[in-house]
Amino acid sequence: MMAKRKPFKAAKTHFFASRYFSVSIIVCAGVVSTVIAFLSARYWQTTRLNTQLQKQVDEVVRSLQKNTDSNFEPLLAVNDFYSASTAEVSRQEFSDLAKRLLLRHPSIELLAWTPRIPNPARQAFETAIRNEGYKNYQIYEQQTQGTMVRSSVRSEYFPISYIEPFNQYELAFGFDLGSEEKRRSTLEIARDRGTLATTGRLGFSNNKAGFLLVMPVYQNNQSLNTLEARRTNLKGFAVGLFLFPNFIKSVLGNVDAKNINLVFYDETVGSQERFLAFYDSESGKVLTESDQEITTSSYREWLCQKDTCLRQFKVGNRLWSVEFLPTEQYFGESTLWLSWVFLVGGLSLTASLAVYALRYEQHSRRIEQLVKELSQANFEIRSLSRISDALQACLSLEEAYSVIPRLVQKLFPLHSGIIYTISASGNIVEAATTWGNNLASQLVFSPNDCWGIRCGRPHLFENTYSGLACSHFTQPLAEECYCVPMMAQGETLGLFYLQAPERGKFTEAKQQLALTVAEHIALALANLRLRETLKNQSIRDPLTGLFNRRYLEESLERELLRAERQKHSVGVIMIDIDHFKKLNDTYGHEAGDIVLQELAVFLQGSIRASDIACRYGGEEFTLILPEATMEVTKQRAEQLREGAKHLHVHYRRQPIGRITLSLGVASFPAQASSASAVLRAADEALYKAKSAGRDRVQIAS
């Protein structure tokens, strides 16, 4: 018990002995007296302002609903026009009507006519539009990556056939509104209910946001009392496009919303995006980005309690809400300054004394923090330099994969990680090296399973309800995961994956550091891959994929030296395709190349992993068989000769015929004591085999 009391007593003594005690007394006395005076005046002001604000809110909402209904009248007019027309409405008639309506209602961005086209009538419909002079017209849809393609086969289509203004929105001409889920569901609601229907928030080109309003048009003189009748007799839809800036300014009209910002939300059940737009009363601008800064006042909580500043109104079939955010200017014009005089004066005096006492300590802490950050930055720079130097010194990818974990762990000591590589085919992401414990990611997965690779930028996952987890994550999920695509020369080489045992470890500095490390690793791996590719190209025959003559000579020298040290033999088989010139003359050189490739595959699959298969030149091949006696070498040669006869090679779907081989066999050190001598002996034996009638194995003498 005494041991527990001593730390508390020491801390208490230290507090009273420090300058914090006197500062605390000054601050407490000043704040308490200031707050009492301020709250008394503020209570009276808040009561008065609340009554004034609620009255203004109700007036704005009534005006919003009225102006919204007025903005939708052009769609009703188009519906009435089609219903009153006994004949098919022509393009010119629609254009004349639309221009007049757009002139009277500038909040509408465009008006369009979208007929219902059953699949059997699609070709005839497209042909009819082309005959009007639009030669490239077709019904198209937009893919997820944004490209426009011809619409896939569906039971019915809703293509835009009339649109005004045409020149401004020509790209939408022919777009099938039924090809996208949001638009299609809105069309179905309008069709089934027979009333106006509105889409949710939609994104358009140039980062514009808005919504579509659709009005169903049915066949004339038809009963529409049932759902089936409305679906059967649907002729098409009148469509209007509204962009949020123009629409909201239009519905606000002359409404008195001075110094009150407005936030519009979509409260419809099932809506994917709740935020619609933000109206800034000071600038008169309408902002549509959900992450933009919403300007409000700290006094709002006093006036708008329990959603008293939130109102709802109907927009077509959807329910919108508008939140009223009084700004500082609103309270500045409506507030008595007495309470602020007490608050500002008292707090200013208190703050001045407190700031004077604490400034030195804050300055000291700031210096300590800067020194710490500078030290960390220097450490990271040195570590990055070591990583670059070490990776540049690596001779192979395997060596680099073994070095990376030891280097990266110094920069991320609390994190576990994986370096992934993407296969040459681009369809597999596989772990090349790992470090740390309890990794929550699969070792092999598809590139589409990672949001970082799919989006081409780093993806941070936090284990919360709103966190977007990659499909390659495993259970239990890590608290934080960071996926950084490793890019080099415009190509995604792999993935740098990090995970933290707790939240808050991936600060902005750590994220930037991970991105820099990924860039260094990607560049080093790209250089190593290029180095291995160039090396492989220098020792491989481009046609057959076997080793070339240069590699044969280097490898044979190495194997003979090893055999001499270890006192064992090396077998050499020289192979020649019989009647290859005749085959080229009969079928052509392309057929000859196919025979060479098929034989190379056969040889590669018939030898041991330690054996070396090379293309010696033309139709000649050479095999090096380490630790093979003359008898074993001869048996292998006979097996190859017999196996080649069973090769079935086709050229342009025609069989070329049976392939036979002549083979010369030599052995080190039985027939020769050097690389050139053993090759010469095998070549002479091959010549004898061909002279003796071909299709045989000849042992060097």
**Average pLDDT for all residues:** 83
Tell me the number of helical segments per DSSP (H or I, 4 or more residues long). 19
Report the sheet with the most strands, covering strand number, pairing sense and barrel closure: 6 strands, antiparallel
In CATH, the topology of the domain at 72-221 and 234-251 is named Beta-Lactamase
Regarding quaternary structure, how should these chains be classified?
single chain
Kindly report the name of the CATH homologous superfamily of the domain at 72-221 and 234-251: CHASE domain
Using only C-alpha atoms, the radius of gyration works out to: 40 Å
Q: What class would the helix/strand composition place it in?
A: alpha+beta
Distance between the termini: 100 Å
* CATH hierarchy: architecture of the domain at 72-221 and 234-251: 2-Layer Sandwich
User: Helical residue percent?
Assistant: 40-55%
Under the CATH scheme, which class of the domain at 72-221 and 234-251?
Alpha Beta
The number of E-state strands comes to: 28
Strand fraction equals 15-25%
Query: What would the principal axes of the Cα set say about the shape?
Result: flat
Q: Residue ranges: pLDDT <50 for 5 or more in a row? A: none
